[in-house]
Design a protein that fits this description.
This protein is an alpha+beta fold and 498 residues long. The protein is built from 15 helices and 15 strands. The chain is 31% helix and 20% strand.
Length: 498
């Protein structure tokens, strides 16, 4: 009897809790909804937002009000008395009636304010975002404030929509989302551009404590690939969207020290085309959501600085089948071109940004669209140890089954490969790269990569995966020339505000 009563109570609480968490949050009071759909009750409309600008006349005051839900502001009409304490940046709750605008070309309706509640004051003398042009360099000094600017809020909503799109795509394709560790024991890329973790001076213990909290060197991750490989052997197909870190001292529009990487790994595949197809599908899932006919964000991005035509070129090209050429073919095209490169294209050397930019424009460029380009099968000597060697090459040169994905301006936005899944060839590759001694390394010789090598000892299968620079892709599709404007709180060499 008691057990049945307890069970009934638990069931009731669970159902009530489930109802709370599944009830959709209302967005009907957002400015975007008001501009698109209008209010349910035009005589009582409540708007929460910030004053973007205000203009006062003798009889009326006009304010542009935004809440981040729309690039376009709401126009509100006040009496001079109502607007006396309002200034740019002031947080307000406005109550009023929804009326047709006398100038419908600008905005079909406007809010005639009856009540004004000031939620948060803004000192007009010190408010840093006055109604004027601010350079990107100036705005980067205040990342905590710049997101309030209309186009920056559009970029935030674009990121949110993009995450939802790729999450849905991977879920529908049978992938399991993984949260991979930020702190790692190895440098996945082998480039040595890692941030090492140490305890602070206050946390140091006895004399001789060198700050190695984990008793051995540990780093901020440069890639989730190795951990995804391990977990793909459990559930088959995995993906993650995780922060990654590079201590690369590159002060360019394409580089950050902290950025997000979309990575995926597929087990039981021997065809690199499966991996390339997945990378293509992931990028297209984001671009497909930018149709301005149905997407507010897509429509707003057309108003960016590079112009509507270029945005349509990029988004339209992303929705086409991507081009594919080999590294050898790319080198031949570069060498046969009449373009004067700063770095001479040579087989066996990595492609420079100028080479990638030329390939993306010449191979993928068309009259009205810019189609991304896969460059495949790079020389084995310039790629990491874990990549699978190409089985048969026509010219006898050693290459690996790998690819980079190139687009104009942003250059490389993704890279992937088939992984060496057999134990002995992997050991041999690590020895060739000077990572371990030969000919028969001990567990101690394998060091922090012993666990990775162990994956090849017990039931390893053919597999492959890729990593896509999420911020670079968003910046390319949004027409933002500098990746520092796509990331909310950008970190790069010498700079880490907030």
């Amino acid at each position: 009897m008691v057990r049945s009563a307890v069970a009934h109570c638990v069931k009731q609480v669970f159902e009530q809790s489930r109802g709370l968490h599944t009830k959709p949050l209302s967005h009907e009071s957002s400015i975007a909804h008001l501009l698109d759909q209008g209010p349910k009750d035009s005589e009582r409309v409540v708007v929460n937002g910030f004053i973007r600008s205000i203009r006062s006349l003798k009889q009326r005051s006009f304010a542009s009000v935004g809440d981040g839900s729309s690039l376009e502001p709401l126009q509100a009409l006040f009496t001079p008395q109502q607007s006396e304490r309002l200034s740019n940046g002031t947080a307000v709750r406005l109550t009023g009636s929804w009326r047709q605008s006398p100038n419908p070309k600008v905005q079909s309706h406007e809010l005639h304010v009856k009540e004004v509640d000031i939620i948060g004051h803004s000192d007009p003398a010190t408010y840093p975002l006055q109604k004027k042009y601010h350079t990107p360099e100036y705005l980067r000094t205040m990342p905590h404030m710049r997101a309030r600017l209309p186009f920056n809020s559009t970029l935030l909503r674009f990121r949110s929509d993009a995450i939802a799109a790729v999450t849905s795509m991977f879920s529908e394709s049978g992938f399991t989302q993984i949260h991979t560790p930020i702190i790692t024991s190895s440098d996945c890329e082998g480039a040595g551009e890692v941030f090492r973790i140490r305890a602070s001076e206050e946390e140091l213990g006895s004399e001789g404590d060198d700050g190695s909290f984990f008793k051995a060197a540990k780093y901020l991750t440069v890639s989730s690939q190795l951990h995804l490989e391990a977990l793909a052997q459990s559930v088959g197909k995995v993906w993650t969207l995780s922060p990654t870190f590079r201590a690369e001292k590159s002060d360019t529009a394409r580089h950050l020290s902290e950025f997000y990487m979309l990575e995926a790994e597929i087990s039981f595949t021997q065809d690199m085309e499966d991996v390339m197809g997945l990378a293509e599908k992931a990028a297209q899932s984001i671009a497909r959501n930018l149709d301005p006919a149905v997407s507010r964000v897509g429509k707003e991005l057309l108003q960016g600085t590079i112009g509507e035509e270029e945005i349509r070129r990029r988004v339209g090209g992303m929705l086409q089948g991507f081009h594919r050429i080999t590294y050898t073919e790319a080198i031949q095209l570069l060498q046969n071109s009449t373009h004067q490169f700063e770095y001479s294209p040579t087989w066996g050397h990595g492609l420079q940004a100028e080479h990638e930019r030329w390939i993306a424009a010449e191979v993928g460029g068309k009259a009205d669209i810019s189609v991304p380009v896969f460059v495949t099968h790079y020389p084995r000597a310039i790629k990491p140890f874990y990549m699978l060697p190409t089985a048969n090459t026509a010219d006898g040169r050693e290459t690996v089954d790998c690819f980079d994905l190139l687009v104009p301006e942003a250059c490389e936005i993704a890279g992937g490969s088939m992984r060496e899944h057999q134990l002995r060839p992997l050991i041999k590759s690590m020895q060739a790269k000077g990572m371990i001694p030969g000919p028969d390394p001990s567990d101690e010789d394998l060091g922090e990569l012993k666990w990775y090598v162990d994956l090849r000892r017990w039931g390893s299968v053919p597999h492959g995966g890729f990593g896509l620079g999420f911020d670079r892709l968003l910046g390319y599709l949004a027409g933002v020339p500098n990746i520092r404007e796509v990331v909310t709180f950008p970190r790069w060499v010498g700079r880490c505000e907030c």
